[in-house]
Design brief:
Blueprint lengths: L6 H32 L4 H28 L8 H19 L7 H31 L5 H29 L7 H20 L1 H5 L21 H9 L2 H32 L4 H33 L1 H22 L8 H34 L4 H30 L11 H25 L7 H20 L1
Helix pairs in contact: 1-2, 1-4, 1-5, 1-6, 1-9, 1-13, 2-4, 2-13, 3-4, 3-6, 4-13, 5-6, 5-10, 5-12, 9-10, 9-12, 9-13, 9-14, 10-11, 10-12, 11-12, 11-14, 12-15
């Protein structure tokens, strides 16, 4: 199979990311304003719940990755999982917001716990094989970047949609937030199903024949635990996975706080006015990010993935410092400048990390003689969701600590708002700077990957000749 991927394949694969990204981001973004502000559930409980979901994912993600690596069917290795996962993800996403009326805060917490458990199990079945499918579509260093430019383009568009979901729940033609959440959640669940099955219909999986060369031929095939252990011992993979997890944790912290800063600091408690600004903010972030994807792809081909990845992290530090000055009640929409600046950071790190994981799969094959995209996708997906969950957990603890431990009935104090603004600017900047420094240890440059690629192609040629 040619290393060049057809445009239609790239497009269909990229559209699948609409379902994956909305499913990953929307529950965290909506749970705090709906379950905490609207229904009085303790913010720390919500944050803790999202963290507990990652314990469950620690079992389900690697298991699904291992099963999809070893599935052999006439439909392919990944497609059966993606099809079932897309349908169930949409159904259980809607269930999160089809919440009954009249429950106590504890009752709502129990309902959220059960529906999130079902939802995240379904999301694992969808997302892990979807990531693995992309990692194996090409073994060309630059073509991988071009492939993942497509899901990276649709990722910010999906995030724009997520940014407007809370706005939609606040419309006056709904009786209240609960009714708004029911309708918005159900329609969004249907869209998750539609976009989730597009890769099943229009992407042809690539069947990579791995040569059984010495000494690999004499080794037994690794079992599930061995696969997991070997993937977790891969240093380049761990550097990327921990970096993205940390970045997502920081982003989740500020993503949750962004609602509170706008509602209580910028607009003095007016959630309807704040919801409009919040919607436009995320539109600015992800609209600009979508426009920047071709630029970032070109930069990565020209200067290498590692250099652009690190540059984006350093840029993120500068953006966090600027936030202190860009959020003011006198000029509510000045924060859109922050959104435009943040867009480069967001688009670059999430485009490049997927292409870099695909490189890791080649590095791992050279070391161990097998392909395990599913396991790497599973562990990376777990780290991805863990970053989001830790961010939700930390933001929940912080919100409860500074006063949002129950339904908000009065305007928070000036001290509370000041503390929240400090957290919003300083914490993410420190995290981004830490991983900027750690990425100097990442070894898989373009030159190194070209050498690995030549070695693997030579092995496969020798295997076919023999």
């Amino acid at each position: 199979m040619s290393n060049k991927i057809p445009f239609g394949t790239k497009l269909a694969y990229g559209l699948g990311n609409v379902a994956v990204m909305i499913a990953k981001q929307a529950p965290k973004r909506l749970s705090f304003p709906i379950y905490n502000i609207g229904l009085g559930v303790n913010a720390a409980w919500i944050g803790t719940l999202f963290s507990l979901m990652r314990i469950w994912d620690a079992f389900t993600d690697p298991l699904v990755g291992h099963l999809s690596d070893n599935l052999r069917s006439r439909f392919g290795r990944r497609k059966p999982f993606i099809l079932v996962g897309a349908i169930l993800t949409g159904v259980f996403f809607a269930a999160i917001w089809l919440l009954p009326r009249g429950l106590s805060p504890v009752g709502y917490m129990v309902y959220l716990s059960v529906t999130l458990l079902l939802f995240y199990t379904a999301l694992t079945v969808l997302s892990v094989p979807w990531y693995a499918m992309g990692y194996e579509l090409s073994d060309d260093y630059d073509e991988r970047t071009k492939l993942f430019a497509f899901p990276s383009f649709f990722s910010p568009i999906s995030q724009i949609a997520v940014g407007w979901l809370y706005f939609l729940t606040q419309r006056t033609f709904f009786e209240d937030t609960v009714e708004g959440a029911r309708w918005v959640g159900s329609i969004t669940g249907l869209l998750l199903i539609v976009f989730g099955i597009l890769p099943v219909l229009f992407v042809k999986e690539r069947d990579i024949k791995v040569p059984l060369t010495e000494p690999v031929a004499k080794k037994p095939k690794p079992n599930f635990l061995q696969n997991l252990k070997q993937s977790l011992s891969c240093r380049p993979f761990l550097l990327i996975a921990f970096s993205i997890s940390g970045i997502l944790m920081a982003s989740a912290i500020v993503g949750s706080l962004h609602y509170y800063i706008n509602i209580y600091y910028i607009y003095g408690g007016d959630s309807e006015a704040a919801s409009t600004t919040i919607g436009w903010y995320w539109t600015a972030v992800y609209g600009m990010a979508a426009l920047l994807v071709p630029v970032i792809s070109w930069l990565a081909v020209r200067f290498g993935k590692k250099a652009v990845f690190q540059a984006s992290l350093f840029w993120g530090v500068l953006v966090m410092a600027a936030r202190w000055f860009l959020y003011t009640p006198d000029m509510p929409y000045l924060q859109l400048l922050d959104g435009v600046m943040y867009a480069f950071f967001d688009a670059a790190v999430f485009l490049l990390c997927q292409s870099m994981i695909a490189d890791v799969c080649d590095f791992d094959e050279q070391q161990h003689g097998i392909r395990r995209e599913g396991v790497f996708a599973a562990v990376f997906g777990w780290m991805f969701k863990t970053g989001l969950a830790l961010g939700a957990f930390v933001s929940g603890i912080l919100l409860a600590y500074i006063g949002f431990d129950k339904a908000v009935t009065e305007q928070p104090s000036a001290e509370t708002l000041h503390t929240m603004r400090v957290i919003y600017s300083v914490v993410p900047g420190v995290i981004f700077l830490t991983f900027f420094l750690l990425m100097f240890l990442y070894p898989l440059t373009k030159q190194r990957m070209n050498e690995i690629g030549e070695d693997l192609r030579s092995r496969r040629t020798e295997s076919m000749d023999s």
